[in-house]
Design a protein that fits this description.
The chain is an alpha/beta fold. It has 2 domains: 165 residues, Rossmann fold; 120 residues, Rossmann fold. The chain is built from 11 helices and 10 strands. Strands 2-1-3-4 form a 4-stranded parallel beta sheet, covered by helices on one side. A two-stranded antiparallel sheet has the order 5-6. Helix 5 links the parallel strand 3 and strand 4. Helix 6 packs antiparallel against helix 7.
């Protein structure tokens, strides 16, 4: 008897066989709509493409891409896609095999291909941090790569794509400068960002903030009592006033850290909720890329400044 997980894998395999069997039909009827894995990517691609080209995101608000599994509905969307855009660097780890098969007969573009390997944060051999969007200048490079590849796929719209790409790049430059000014408001001994998983290393490197994550770069990573204990010691010794929860990750792990700090007579608050691996929904403060980054920066600076008089 098939377990639930085995059944899902079986369905996925059947779906892939179906996709491969439809290769010739797809080539003839491709409508050139664009499917992105994350809504961060989809929002960026919408800045680059003319408004009449359909852009779809597989993953919605608050969805954790590290743990995401493609279902039958996703396979149907991918089947109908003209172009697929992924982040790459194993962010969509469970979907890598799907994309490998699909790229044999339709364009699959990786946003991370716009970044030189030497610019990436290496975790271990051939493993790199995928959270490139939190360095705004790095995201500008990825956006440039996407615009160039999309211009090739839509040659009759290439001039418009180029204009939109230039406008988007200027907005990202302004956002980058604004972040630097905001971070300068923080005393240097308060520039410490602690979250549940290590999604903000590029942000920290770009804007001069030390970053600590209880888990690794993926939410699939396990954390143990020693990880909690070490982080508690660090927070107490450095008098860090706040830690931050993420919209796509459970706050349970950080609650244990806060309780540990209390036992050391160090009061740590939850400084707010940050968007890490996904945008927010409509009417939320992180409903697009620019708003997501702005919200995060304001939340971080506000909470860390609240304890700036302690040391």
């Amino acid at each position: 008897m098939l377990t639930h997980n085995c059944f899902k894998c079986w369905i996925l395999s059947i779906g892939l066989l179906f996709l491969m069997g439809c290769e010739s039909t797809l080539d003839e009827t491709n409508s050139k709509n664009v499917v992105c894995t994350t809504n961060i990517l989809a929002n960026t691609v919408r800045q680059l493409l003319p408004d009449d080209i359909d852009v779809v995101s597989l993953m919605g608000p608050g969805v954790d891409p590290h743990l995401y599994k493609a279902g039958q509905g996703d396979l149907e969307i991918l089947q109908e896609a003209g172009i697929i855009i992924e982040n790459g660097l194993h962010l969509e780890g469970k979907m890598a095999e799907v994309f490998k098969k699909l790229q044999k007969y339709k364009p699959v573009i990786s946003a991370s291909d716009g970044i030189e390997k030497g610019e990436l944060i290496q975790i271990e051999k051939e493993v790199y941090d995928p959270h490139i969007w939190f360095d705004v200048q790095m995201w500008k490079m990825s956006s440039k790569l996407l615009s160039e590849r999309l211009a090739l796929e839509f040659p009759d719209r290439s001039e418009e794509i180029s204009r939109r790409s230039d406008f988007w790049a200027s907005k990202l430059d302004s956002l980058h400068l604004w972040i630097r000014k905001e971070i300068e408001q923080l005393p240097k001994n308060r520039r410490v960002l602690v979250t549940a998983h290590d999604a903000f290393s590029y942000f920290g490197r770009a804007y001069g903030i030390e970053v600590k994550g209880l888990q690794g770069i993926s939410t699939q990573s396990e954390y143990g009592l020693k990880d909690v204990s070490d982080l508690v010691d660090y927070l107490a010794e450095n008098k860090v006033p706040a830690v931050f929860v993420e919209t796509s990750v459970s706050e349970k792990s950080l609650v244990a850290v806060i309780e540990g700090c209390k036992r050391k007579n160090h009061n740590v608050i939850i400084g707010g909720q940050l968007y890490s691996d996904a945008l927010g929904g409509k009417e939320e403060p992180g409903d697009n890329y620019k708003n997501m980054v702005s919200h995060n920066v304001k939340t971080i600076v506000g909470a860390l400044n609240s304890g700036s008089d302690e040391g």
